[in-house]
């Protein structure tokens, strides 16, 4: 079966690496970016099957990336899971209002659970 | 109800504590002062009008009244503005603290998980045991920070629930499974009584797990010596109802009204043998209420406690059948 491609846009390198290695070991092809500007470029070039997106990012924050993705014809339907440690009603409402598929609070989720969510969205058994 | 409301309105010390202002800055105090000034001013104008048959004097006295009212009024507005500003700052602090504190915890948790699940080859049993302990400490730290941030968010009306359809029976079963070894360690018989297989509720599964974890671990913790904890799940009037009954130390009668307040810990006989922040029930109650249910309890000191909560069933919620009593 062809590997599904995941783009991680996360500026915390420790988290980015841990997530990337875990997903790679679960048979995903993983691409990473550490800022929003490069992230949106990579999303257009790579056409990932799903984007894992942080909110607090250098150069362009997660909300702006989310808006750009939804406005770009070739990738506008890509599921976006927001991975954040912000988690107030206003943060969540804003993210979902801009078209995020769902959001996960990083400190509350294990890598295994994040991966399970990715598989659920991509309908992988 | 009305008596309680009037009592709350006049409890200036509590209001000042809640709003983080001085007593003379509380809206109730300022409104009382304004009321007194209006009465005094009206009386003054009345006295002036019957004693001095001069329109100039009347105009001057009425002007003084207007100036007084405007001064007190603007003072009230300023106080309300200050309270709103400090609330906004608190909310911003919560957001920043949440991000700053949770990031290193996420790093710790994800790294240990990665090591234990994907790169544990070659590690000795002892090394794995130590890594597991580090992982548990990370979880504990995460829970403590979550509790503090949840309280701040509840106070700001900003607690977000990520709701989805869940089987309530299964959730309770899973929560009990997590506490079985703790119960055994404490010499407590933990039992679930449920004749149903499926009770569909629309909840934030993580938050509801926090509620369940809290109530079950409290029931176990507050039994002195060996004892019994029964968990009963049933369907009642369009709600999934949870009840946990223990034969523990119970809650002194005079403390029962304060039990769900934040940072409150009961002065029962084993307070010092159990750890806790006094935030669990406050958070649990708010999560249950924000999920459309309610939480209540009955307790007799030295006999035991029964804690209940209810959550609307999905079907009843759709049909508008779930009405809180």
Give structural notes:
The complex is a heterodimer of chains A (125) and B (325). Chain A is of the alpha/beta class. Chain A has a single domain (4-121), classed as Response regulator (Rossmann fold, 3-Layer(aba) Sandwich). Chain A is 43% helix and 20% strand. Chain A is built from 5 helices and 5 strands, in the order βαβαβαβαβα. Chain A has helices at residues 13-25, 36-46, 62-71, 89-97, 111-121, and strands spanning 4-9, 28-33, 50-53, 80-84, 102-105. A 5-stranded parallel sheet of chain A has the order 2-1-3-4-5, sandwiched between helices. In chain A, helix 1 links the parallel strand 1 and strand 2 (28-33). The longest helix of chain A is centred in the N-terminal third of the chain and has 13 residues, at 13-25. The termini of chain A are close together. With 325 residues, chain B is an alpha+beta fold. Chain B has 2 domains: 1-159, no CATH class; 164-319, Histidine kinase-like ATPase, C-terminal domain (Heat Shock Protein 90, 2-Layer Sandwich). Chain B is built from 9 helices and 7 strands; from the N terminus they run αααααβαββαββαββα. Chain B has helices at 2-10, 12-19, 27-51, 55-118, 125-156, 168-185, 205-221, 280-290, 314-319, and strands spanning 164-167, 188-193, 200-203, 227-236, 239-246, 294-300, 304-312. Chain B has a 5-stranded mixed sheet with strand order 2-4-5-7-6. The longest helix of chain B has 64 residues, at 55-118. Chain B is elongated and about 100 Å long. The interface between A and B is medium-sized, with 27 and 28 residues.
